Amino acid sequence: xxxxxxxxxxxxxxxxxxxxxxxxxxxxxxxxxxxxxxxxxxxxxxxxxxxxxxxxxxxxxxxxxxxxxxxxxxxxxxxxxxxxxxxxxxxxxxxxxxxxxxxxxxxxxxxxxxxxxxxxxxxxxxxxxxxxxxxxxxxxxxxxxxxxxxxxxxxxxxxxxxxxxxxxxxxxxxxxxxxxxxxxxxxxxxxxxxxxxxxxxxxxxxxxxxxxxxxxxxxxxxxxxxxxxxxxxxxxxxxxxxxxxxxxxxxxxxxxxxxxxxxxxxxxxxxxxxxxxxxxxxxxxxxxx
Length: 289
Fold this sequence. Notes:
The protein is mostly helical. The chain has two domains: 3-47, no CATH class; 66-167 and 182-247, hpI Integrase, Chain A (Orthogonal Bundle), CATH 1.10.443. The chain is built from 13 helices and five strands. The strands form two sheets. Strands 1-2-3 form a three-stranded antiparallel sheet. A hairpin with a 4-residue loop joins strand 1 and strand 2 (116-119). The protein is globular. The relative contact order is 0.11.
């Protein structure tokens, strides 16, 4: 459509067609459109009728029960077209990396020999730049992504682990021998695996309804939740792995961690009783040299 032909009704229709994306993402998209229209002097006439969708603040994300997480990944593994979404989800659930951080990993950021990845380009800020050791599941998933990357032409250190599609070429650019209309471009990261994600989570949601609305980013939250609920893992270690943990998330689980620490320390109560018994053996008037 030409910008001058866009009306508030078109925006409402677009929002209705994007309902599965969630209110936050839809608001961002309409905001981008609004800025374009504003540059053209056309937004003021629409803005008076427009109100952003309400974004419910129910917390930083949702964690999964173990059986829900296992079922989600099992479903994701069943179809080839979900392969990247499956492997990306496996990495996220085992490293607390967000989908954007995984998409922007380059080959130079992956060290399968030592089992580590370095989050650099995809980090939101300096606190999120970090090196993460890979457990067995994450290392397997990254190795599979590496195999796919090599098949798609990624072989240089600056090439992406998950290459994106090449830009559409003109007939002149294609040349006489060009056939592949969707070949990969290893110099560009995949934009998203959102389409595959929506399909697989809908399928997984048939058994566990909560999964039908699960965000890709929730797998990072699930990993953080699992770590925070483990009393043997320090908060500093979690911050080193995740790059940043909000105060809200830490406060949410602080009472659980304190309760478990309290239960562990109750074993020391016998020392006070033993000490009391020993002190009673000493006569009250006897001086201790």
